[in-house]
Write a structure and sequence with these properties.
This protein is mostly helical. It has helices at residues 2-60, 65-77, 80-105, 113-130, 136-165, 169-189, 222-239, 241-251, 253-258, 263-290, 301-311, 316-339, 344-359, 361-378.
Amino acid sequence: MGIRLLESTRRQATSVLKLFGQTAITRISRLGSHQAVSTLASIVISVLLAMLIGSVVMAVAGNRPLEVYGLLLEGAFVGVNSIMNSLQRATPLVFVSLAAVIAFRSDMFNLGIEGQFVLGALITAYVGFSIQGLPWFLHIPLALSAGALTGGLWALLPGLMKVFLNVNEVISTIMFNYVAAFAASYMVNYPWRETPEAPFTPPVSASATIPQLVVRSQLNYGFFIAVGTALFFAFLLNRTTLGYELRQTGLAARFAQYGGISVKRVSVLSMVLSGAVAGLGGGVEILGVYRRYIEQFSVNLGFDGILVALLGKLSPLGAFFASVFYGGLKSGAQSLEWTSDVPRELIGTIVSIIIFFLAAEGLFRIVRSYWHARPQEAE
């Protein structure tokens, strides 16, 4: 009797999930271009408001807003060098934002992306400088795979602690960041330190370096690895059974469980995939930019990735384009600091205002919906 009741409940839950998906698809098809135009309008309003408030801040500080904005955009997206520098800044952000998207879509809050990125970079560097004689087409994949595996394993333990011991993953992953940072600091200061002068490892072998696209920029072929990773996870989340399980677990874990999805397995797997992507990003950054592990080469990159993932609406492709935008702002801010007398603190304030209003873009949709609903309520 109990078994039949359980099977009946599972069938009903599966039907509800299918109906929910069909209803969502129908609503999306009905909304069509109107929703896209509405979202675009909200983003434009957010940017204009951010620029207006930023202009007030700059005017109070004695700077000319139009000139500063022009230099910011020129340093970010005008000219080949500016675009390449922006894409180079965006490359690690793509990986860490994808890591956040994968975990968050399954309702797992992985705040340990920074530690997974750092350890993946450290192990990639070790494989890069310790192994000699391999051809590049074996050495680079081996080093990157080691970094991804390290990041995945580092994220595995918090996932298991969450699922089996009900340990809050927010706290555990944050604490794991400190453990990873101190472990990496020890390894680069003692066993793997190249010289007494500075804390960095020996350079990776030539067969393990990811080539640069052009000589005058640090943009390298790792950018295409980032593009491929974003496309892969966009396909996985939206076109595969595993992606369906990840999404349904994040939307309604109890319904997903009744529908036959192993929520514990999916939750742990999402953490492992998230950590692996972060570790892969650390490896790409080491082999393509630094060519060795340098202590504290990554500062708050994991939390930047979470911000970018939220800007991208927790979509793999959205996270990719948000990474390019955010990387462009960072690159433009650095160029602005070099080419003008605008202080670094003011530049950081302007960028923060722009990001804040973009992140609050949903607020304008709520206000607009309320405003349109007022005449109906009056009637």
